[in-house]
Design goal:
The complex is a heterodimer. Chain A has three domains: 4-178, Pyruvate-ferredoxin oxidoreductase, PFOR, domain III (Pyruvate-ferredoxin Oxidoreductase, domain 3, 3-Layer(aba) Sandwich); 199-373, Thiamin diphosphate (ThDP)-binding fold, Pyr/PP domains (Rossmann fold, 3-Layer(aba) Sandwich), CATH 3.40.50; 463-580, Rossmann fold. Chain A is built from 19 helices and 21 strands. Chain A has helices at 17-30, 76-82, 115-122, 128-140, 144-155, 160-178, 202-212, 227-240, 250-262, 273-288, 316-321, 337-354, 364-368, 391-395, 441-453, 484-496, 514-521, 537-544, 565-580, and strands spanning 4-12, 34-40, 49-57, 70-73, 90-95, 108-113, 198-200, 217-220, 243-246, 267-271, 293-299, 330-332, 357-363, 370-373, 425-427, 465-468, 475-480, 501-506, 508-510, 526-531, 552-556. Chain A has an eight-stranded mixed beta sheet, with helices on both faces. A seven-stranded mixed beta sheet of chain A has the order 9-8-10-11-13-12-19, sandwiched between helices. Chain B has helices spanning 21-35, 71-81, 93-97, 101-110, 155-162, 175-187, 209-215, 230-239, 257-260, 278-286, and strands spanning 43-47, 62-65, 86-92, 115-120, 123-124, 130-131, 166-171, 192-197, 217-218, 244-250. In chain B, helix 8 links the parallel strand 9 (217-218) and strand 10 (244-250). In chain B, helix 1 (21-35) crosses helix 6 and helix 5 packs antiparallel against helix 8. The chains are: A alpha/beta, B alpha/beta. Chains A and B meet through helix 1, strand 7, helix 7, helix 8 and helix 9 of A and strand 2, helix 2, helix 4 and helix 10 of B.
Chain lengths: 581, 289
């Protein structure tokens, strides 16, 4: 019995690959399995090979499976390109209509089903993919009834005929495999317990986190892989009194958010690398004028246009140090959908408490691939609007309001426009405590030190260095972002082999909690930084902050594909073996 | 309480050159705000970069002085956050028609509820005298010693053709008219563009006070001119090569952006109870089952 199975459907873009994958993922999730669903797609709308893999597991999973157990091929290209990734002898479901063939030497079993013909006979060519779902259910050992029930729910509004056609398609596909005399492989997963589970991407949860935190304005320019955030909120905002402004570019998007933050709204923008580069000047303004702003950078392969639909973690340095001058900001690095929710929420509290830009550094792997979400901590999170000076206080002022008062903790209480006697100038020019422009050297030093000082306590913020099993470990893995899924799975694998392996996940890249990180690494004999970039940006950042020693090593992946648990396992085994020699 | 000019003044000494047209624009803005009895805390002025961008130092309202060229998107953010505020964007011709041109056209077409006052001196002043996008063809400056080979942007016809719902032009020397135009702009529900001819006495030797006094036509004094016809307005500004002052066009049916936005809250966002309860989340999550 397998602990986890991977089902993959492939075809041309525009053939309903996504919706078919969603059906399999959703039904398996309802049956109680943990899901991780990931896709291969290109920057085009119709045509071009695409595939969608749904990993089903009895245990939580947040990483790809190295091999596929069932391949559904809607085109010959799907077979040609994906059959090598199949488990030995694994089944390939293919439409007899395109006369599928296995390439020479392929170790697989081709199950030709007259998909198109069955769909036509049912009277609805569109149910072709549903036939493959039925066939897949039989191969994966999943109950057909669960699929039928989902179809009734999903297509109920379209009428009884549509439901019946889809159920028929499911049944015929299922029966074809079940009654097929030659099908060699039939899988089974351990029985699962259905629970309150949701299938969500990091973009989904981040959007809900922002909404939950009271974000009611978003300005954005469409860009893969961040656009879902904007589209999700565009659907929800009208009900909650919010608005999306689709701007003419990212320069406008970030400065719109800054204007809104100045005026007291919780506002955000979301972008990816190219747009993030354009936003840097605006981020500097928010730093120096101490204006709350939340900016999501959903990283993809860069620089320039890079590979828009592939994953990478190469914006870390530009998130932390981007733009001219030394503009202080907070950089959060969520790794799971639940963490993206937490950060999508907490970013607004941090932005208002510390009056600065907060960058949520997501990545394509987190942003776009669905995962099982069990508990979104919405009851635990609370809203903190920071230090705001109200009308009663300003009424008592005898002199001009000092917006940028130099305080011990560096935080200067602010007024919101509309508050009588609270007027001030917020400017990207260096300014005196009043906000008015100043070139006085002493003032410059005092103001820039104040802006740096206010963020210092964040180095000891709780929950930003998540360590597990590092004490006495042979190897401790350090990671940030979506690779936590692969890291955790690799760590569990190695522990299963009797190796002491720990891991540390970093949830905040700036201010870097360097001392916390150093403490967390404890007495681990080796430290492996796992990053999806070519230069080891996190390790470099740690070095800049005084963390580097002979224990450190790096695993870097930068080909645009998701990191596999097995790649980490191999690297760690190599490290340990080297040590023993 | 009666608002006075004193309420809008600050203690700052001006960095502008003596005789700069921007003094006149500042004074007209202050007068307009006083005439309409708007309290300083109800006003947010968003300024760009350049000589004119320093205006926020000299006017005692809420002020935000932003990144070069991004005056209008920042102003949109302020207005969307709190639509009870009067939001005025102010900047120069470089800020508005070079680095920020993109935003100008989009602000026009969105009809954002911002009053946009451009202090147009046809030159880059703060970088010491280079041609701006409104500089005349042929103008010789240090960066174009053989003369400007480009054609100038025509801000009025540009705004009109992009669909602006309010277009006016003033001259910083004609205080009474400029103040009145700014008052009209403030009353207009939507994007109100007031281009002001504001001479640079240091670097622009062509577009001087005398030049404008000799060449400007005051449309407000023309009994035959009607400001409710876009086509006629475009024809007039083309005919006069934009050397006009007065209210050029006003759309009486203007609907501001924030009002057109479906479901958007009317109360200032800052003051709203923004927390979502568990029931809200349960409902939102149903979509992902």
């Amino acid at each position: 019995m397998a602990q986890s199975l991977a089902w993959k459907i492939g075809g041309d873009q525009g053939e309903g690959i996504d919706s078919t994958g969603d059906v399999v993922g959703t039904v398996a999730s309802r049956l109680g399995y943990y899901i991780y669903g990931y896709k291969h797609f290109s920057s085009r709308i119709k045509g071009g090979h695409t595939h969608y893999t749904v990993r089903l597991s009895a245990q939580p999973v947040l990483a790809p499976e190295p091999e596929v157990h069932v391949l559904v091929a809607l085109t010959q290209e799907t077979i040609d390109r994906n059959v090598a990734g199949l488990v030995a002898g694994g089944p390939v479901i293919a439409d007899a209509a395109f006369k599928p063939q296995l390439p020479d030497g392929a170790n697989a079993q081709l199950i030709e089903i007259p998909l198109t013909q069955i769909a036509r006979a049912i009277g609805a060519p569109v149910v072709r993919n549903m036939v493959t779902v039925g066939a897949s259910a039989a191969l994966l050992g999943l109950p057909l009834e669960a699929f039928a029930k989902y179809v009734e729910e999903k297509f109920g509004r379209k009428g009884a005929v549509t439901v019946a056609q889809n159920v028929q398609a499911l049944e015929q596909g299922y029966r074809f495999v079940a009654e097929h005399p030659d099908v060699k492989t039939r899988y089974a997963l351990p029985e699962a317990t259905p629970g309150k589970r949701y299938l969500m991407t990091g973009n989904d949860t981040l959007a809900l986190g922002a909404l939950g935190a009271g974000c009611r304005l978003m300005a954005a320019y469409p860009i893969t892989p961040a656009t879902d955030i904007m589209e999700t909120l565009a659907g929800l905002f009208p009900k909650y009194g919010g608005a999306i402004c689709q701007m003419e570019d990212e320069l406008a998007a970030v400065t719109m958010v800054i204007g809104a933050g100045y005026a007291g709204a919780r506002a955000m923008t979301a972008t990816s690398g190219p747009g993030f580069s354009l936003m840097q000047e605006g981020i500097g303004l928010a730093s120096v004028a101490e204006i709350p702003a939340v900016i999501v950078d959903t990283q993809r392969v860069g620089p320039s246009t890079g590979m828009p639909t592939k994953t990478e973690q190469s914006d870390l340095m530009s998130a932390v140090f981007g733009g001219h001058g030394e503009g202080e900001r907070i950089v959060l690095t969520p790794g799971t959908a639940v963490q993206a929710f937490e950060d999508g929420y907490e970013a607004f509290n941090l932005a208002e408490r510390y009056q600065c830009p907060v960058i949520i550094l997501s990545d394509l792997g987190l942003a776009q691939w669905v995962q099982t979400v069990e508990n979104l901590p919405y009851e635990r999170l609370t809203i903190d609007r920071g230090q705001i000076v109200g009308a009663e206080e300003t009424a008592a002022l005898e002199a001009e309001f000092l917006r940028y008062r130099v305080t011990e903790d560096g935080i200067s209480p602010r007024t919101l426009p509309g508050t009588p006697k609270g007027q001030y100038l917020a400017t990207g020019v260096e300014h005196a405590q009043t906000g008015k422009v100043s070139e006085d050297p002493q003032n410059r030093a005092a103001q820039t030190e104040k802006r740096r000082r206010k963020l210092e306590p964040l180095r000891e913020r709780e929950g930003v260095v998540l360590a597990d099993g590092v004490e006495g470990a042979e190897v401790a893995v350090v990671c940030f972002g979506s690779t936590i899924g692969a890291v955790d799975e690799a760590v569990a694998d190695l522990r299963g082999r009797g190796l002491k392996v720990g891991r540390v996940q970093l949830r905040q890249a700036w201010p870097l909690p360097a001392e916390q990180l150093g403490r967390a690494l404890g007495d681990a004999r080796k430290v492996l930084f796992v990053e999806q970039n070519q230069t080891g940006e996190l390790r470099g950042l740690a070095r800049l902050q005084g963390l580097e020693d002979e224990r450190f090593a790096s695993l870097l992946k930068y080909d645009g594909t998701l990191l596999l648990p097995q790649e980490i396992v191999e690297q760690i085994l190599t490290l340990v073996l080297k040590e023993e020699v | 309480m009666e608002v006075t000019l004193q309420d809008y003044r600050t203690q700052e000494k001006s960095w502008w050159c003596p005789g700069c047209g921007d003094f006149g624009v500042l004074a007209a803005m202050q007068k307009a705000l006083v005439n309409l009895n708007i309290a300083p805390h109800e006003v947010a002025i968003v300024a760009g970069i350049g000589c004119s961008g320093k205006i926020g130092n000299y006017i005692n309202s809420y002020n935000i002085h932003v990144v070069h060229g991004r005056t209008l998107p920042s102003a949109l953010g302020v207005k969307m956050a709190n639509r009870e505020l009067l939001v005025i964007a102010a900047g120069g011709d470089g800020d508005g028609f070079a680095i920020g041109m993109n935003h100008f056209v989009h602000a026009v077409r969105r009809n954002i509820n911002v009053k946009y006052i451009v202090m147009d001196n046809h030159i880059y002043g703060l970088t010491k005298g280079q041609n701006s996008p409104t500089s005349d063809t042929g103008q010789k400056v240090k960066a174009t010693p053989h003369g400007n080979v480009e054609s100038p942007v025509r801000p009025l016809s540009l705004a009109l053709s992009a669909g602006a719902t309010f277009v006016a032009q003033g001259f910083s020397s004609n205080q009474a008219q400029l103040a009145r135009l700014i008052e009209d702009a403030i009353r207009h529900p939507g994007f109100a563009f007031v281009n002001t001819l504001s001479p640079c006495v240091t670097y622009n030797k062509i577009n001087t006070y005398d030049f404008y006094k000799q060449t400007l036509t005051n449309l407000d004094e023309d009994p035959d001119y009607r400001s409710d016809n876009r086509g006629a307005a475009i024809a007039k500004v083309l005919e006069k090569e934009e050397l006009v002052t007065g209210l050029i066009y006003r759309d009486p049916n203007s609907v501001p952006y924030e009002q057109a936005m479906p479901g958007f809250a009317e109360a200032p966002l800052a003051g709203r109870d923004i927390r979502l309860g568990s029931a809200d989340f349960e409902e939102l999550l149903e979509h992902y089952r």
